[in-house]
Amino acid sequence: MEIDDINTIAVLGAGNMGHGIAEVAAMAGYDVNMRDIKDEFVQDGYEQIEWSLNKLAENDQLSEDAADAALERVTPLVDMEEACGNADVVIEAVPEKMEIKRDVYEELEEAAPDRAIFATNTSSLSITNLAEFTDRPGRFCGMHFFNPPVRMPLVEVISGAETDEETLDLIEGLAEDFEKSPVRVHKDSPGFIVNRILVPLMNEACWLVHEDEATVAEVDSTTKYGMGLPMGSFELGDQVGNDVSYHVLDYMHEVLGEAYEPCPFLERKVENEELGKKTGKGFYDYEDGDGVDIPTDEQSELVERRLVASMANEAAKLIGGDVAPPESIDEATKLGAGFPDGPVKVVDEFGLENALEALEEAHEKTGHERYEPADYLQERAEEVGSFYEADEVEGEGLEFDAVRVEYPGEMVGHIVLDRPHRMNTISAELLDELSEAVDILEDDDEVRAILITGEGDKAFSAGADVQSMAAGGADPLGAVELSKKGQSTFGKLESSELPVVAGIDGYCLGGGMELSTCADIRVASERSEFGQPELDLGLIPGWGGTQRLANVVGEGPAKEIILTAERYEADEMKHFGFVSDVVDNDDLEERAFELAADLADGPPIATKYTKRAMLAGRHDTDAGLEYEAAAFGQLMATDDLMEGITAFMGDGEPDFQGK
């Protein structure tokens, strides 16, 4: 079966995951039969899809016609044969109990056509064991979406012991057709990738508190503000549901052994039905207490060592067991858990020897199997010192994590802000890499213009990475240095001798807008939103916004944008003069490159002098005029001038060489 042969998808289960998957499939153009055991269940799921599609349309993320068409493609059903009799792919999303899934698959096998591929959305159960309930283990695999499926980009595609490669390729292609980012899990292992990293991490957090080595506040302060993770460990547990984490961990304990013993602290929460936000109380009290209240300054070196060591051990088991390579682990965890950096990268920077030492110390102290170092961790620590190979690089010999440098042709150098899992927010690491990327392009004689965009269609950049900024607590001196760093990095674009175009698609907020302000020309998609929201946080723009924005739009509009802290649509920003063009969403990439290529085709010496003169005269007109006159004289002696005049007189196109 090829991807073009898939027309009808059956989704079994109309709960949160089931109706979310059905909605994603319908939005991608597939006919969807959504089935559950009771009409009230499936109708509720259908209504949830209708509500979600309407919200997407209200927020201009989907046209009303597209929302209506997607809803029409969804058929709510109860009868298994009616739902699956003509299905090309069946995605199962029923409760995470092996006996329930067994009954479903036995009934499904009787109803589905022989050609149908079966995919389970299980978050932890064995793909191989589930496949045994069917007559088609070769056409059975895992297709694990993350909640909510409409918003989360990751899909783990998991192989069972007998899964055909063609099945995995097809489901991977289907995930891409759903506009998701599939990550291959090569072996069936409990927790797959993301849960295999996250759940033991949360369990270790519980053990630290249970054994009086840290408090909940210290653990969450360390994970959120010290390690820069999107949530504190206990905050995340309450969000996911402590019963969910416990059931995944209990399954790992059953299959993998004592290293995954659930901590009594977590067990008590589940026994007392303190399951998190959904019950009003978990590790935090959401009804009678203050809810999540994480201090920024109670970080613990012990907590960080133990948690990083936990990630190191789990990563080692995944890599050494051929479940997934380092790149896949990092990609999956960033996309599925919102980690700013992948756990393998974090562990490599921490040092495998340090992680190994932390595990050995804890193992000697407690004797617990969860601290027993994995063989592969010991091997890599002794032989290499990292999980990634020392000579692993990306693209053209450059290794960047937060940005990407591309060469699309036409003498354009393309810088991509490459943190889509974090809405391309700007971290200290991104500032360093952006600065280096600008230097690289300026030193390249084959590059005459810079194009800068954000990865994905959600955001050019949604601003500063506030969590990484908050790490270490309130530090005025550190904040001053961070402000100066951003100002100087963005200033490189402003003062670059190359023309700079910003192609803006999606959110362009805070530090992201300050970055785009330093481009020479900005073009935006219709869905883009702009704003400087710092005043709503009790701050001011700190990366040049108070000075540079007025140079682009004038002092009055700049004050309005900054002081109101409101969001502005692309057309409003065009009215202000901030963007030169607003284009259809699908045309943004092409238009931005076209504009950069046009500038690259211009006279490089005259372009350089023009930018210098305008910058020199920004606050001193006489200085700018003086520079303009000197540059005008120098240009009279260039080959480019003669080329331009000759082309003009002959009604041709000049071929400027920068001489």
Outline the structure in words.
The protein is an alpha/beta fold. 49% of the residues lie in helices and 12% in strands. The strands form three sheets. An eight-stranded mixed beta sheet has the order 3-2-1-4-5-6-7-8. A six-stranded mixed beta sheet has the order 9-10-11-13-15-18, sandwiched between helices. Helix 18 links the parallel strand 10 and strand 11. The termini are far apart.
Brief write-up:
The protein is of the alpha/beta class. It is globular, with a radius of gyration of 28 Å.
Structural class: alpha/beta
Task: Tally the beta strands.
Answer: 18
The largest beta-sheet arranges its strands as 3-2-1-4-5-6-7-8
Determine the number of helices (DSSP H or I, runs of at least 4 residues).
28
Measured on Cα atoms, how large is the radius of gyration? 28 Å
For the largest beta-sheet, the strand count, sense and barrel status come to: 8 strands, mixed
Mean pLDDT: 91
β-strand amount? 5-15%
Helix proportion range: 40-55%
End-to-end distance: 58 Å
Gross geometry: globular
Indicate the low-confidence ranges by residue numbers.
392-397
List keywords for this structure.
659 residues; alpha/beta; eight-stranded mixed β-sheet; six-stranded mixed β-sheet; 28 helices; 49% helix; 12% strand; globular
Topology:
Elements: E1 8-12, H1 16-27, E2 31-35, H2 39-58, H3 64-72, E3 74-77, H4 80-84, E4 89-92, H5 98-111, E5 117-120, H6 127-131, E6 140-145, E7 154-159, H7 165-177, E8 181-185, H8 194-210, H9 216-226, H10 233-240, H11 242-256, H12 264-271, H13 301-320, H14 326-337, H15 343-350, H16 352-366, H17 375-383, E9 403-409, E10 412-417, H18 428-442, E11 449-454, E12 459-461, H19 466-470, H20 476-495, E13 500-504, E14 507-509, H21 511-517, E15 521-525, E16 529-531, H22 545-553, H23 555-564, E17 568-569, H24 570-576, E18 581-583, H25 588-600, H26 604-616, H27 621-635, H28 639-649
Helix pairs in contact: 1-2, 2-3, 8-10, 8-11, 8-13, 9-13, 13-15, 13-16, 18-20, 21-22, 22-23, 26-27
